Task: inverse folding
């Protein structure tokens, strides 16, 4: 049984909603004000949507970096 199923609150300052996701605090953008200094940050549904919106461009770049395409094949 994890902390989310036990009913931990959202880690964003000023939010008292129940958390639905947990992520590493290193992935949280600085624009989201997280209270505490633990390894994990717990986000409610509204802040999870905000997190996805803020990191969408970074995720696209990361995905493109790992994709293989016709330009990456070596022709002998």
Result:
């Amino acid at each position: 049984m994890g902390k989310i199923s036990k009913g931990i609150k959202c880690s964003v300052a000023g939010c008292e909603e129940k958390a639905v996701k947990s992520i590493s605090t290193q992935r949280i953008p600085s624009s989201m004000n997280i209270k505490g200094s633990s390894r994990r940050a717990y986000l409610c549904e509204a802040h999870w949507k905000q997190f996805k919106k803020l990191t969408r461009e970074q995720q696209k770049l990361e995905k493109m970096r790992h994709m293989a395409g016709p330009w990456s094949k070596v022709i002998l």
